[in-house]
Write a structure and sequence with these properties.
five-stranded antiparallel sheet; about 180 residues; 5 strands; globular
Length: about 180
């Protein structure tokens, strides 16, 4: 937990991290530690969850051969060749849901993925969201390489590592996308 008795300005710190977050696709190749990945996983599990179902499950990867296999088989994931590790966000779709209610696992996994990306930025690591769901041609190799059971759906692969500095944050604010009160 965060020590709220500290004199640090958490609002300012968080907003700086939020606006500094970027999709990092260029890594130094230096390995990330199990401890670093655990911090990222805790951040993922701190995400909000519809009906508090928490359907997420994670696979933390540091093995070079597995990272390279995923890079070989996934489009737009070549950065895994230089990443120091990765987190695969998945959903357990076997969890029961209340009758008449929709499954919200994709929203929950999106929130977990974003928390991991923000935590990586806060830790001076780089990370990028590479989509696996809803693409069967991406899900198949992830399932095969990671030996996922049928009830586990791979949602995203997040390469993590030490950034080279090539990737910079983008200002995505667009006043035209804001409506006040009504359309």
């Amino acid at each position: 937990m965060i020590d709220m008795t500290s004199k640090s300005n958490y609002t300012k710190d968080f907003l700086n991290i939020l606006h500094a977050r970027k999709s990092v696709r260029h890594f130094t190749g230096k390995a990330v530690t199990r401890k670093q990945l655990e911090v990222l996983l805790k951040a993922g599990m701190a995400a909000p969850s519809g009906r508090n179902e928490q359907p997420w499950v994670f696979i933390a990867i540091t093995e070079r051969t597995v990272l390279d296999q995923l890079a070989d088989d996934l489009p737009n994931a070549g950065m895994l060749y230089q990443a120091g590790g990765a987190v695969v966000v998945c959903a357990d779709i076997s969890l029961p849901i209340p009758e008449g209610k929709a499954r919200l696992w994709s929203q929950d996994c999106s929130a977990a993925t974003e928390n991991i990306l923000l935590a990586a930025e806060a830790m001076n690591l780089g990370a990028v969201w590479t989509a696996v769901h809803p693409y069967p041609d991406r899900q198949y190799p992830v399932r095969k390489i990671l030996q996922l059971p049928e009830n586990i759906v791979p949602f995203s692969v997040i390469p993590v590592g030490y950034p080279t500095g090539e990737d910079q944050p983008k200002d995505k604010f667009d006043i035209r996308k804001i409506h006040w009160g009504k359309w």
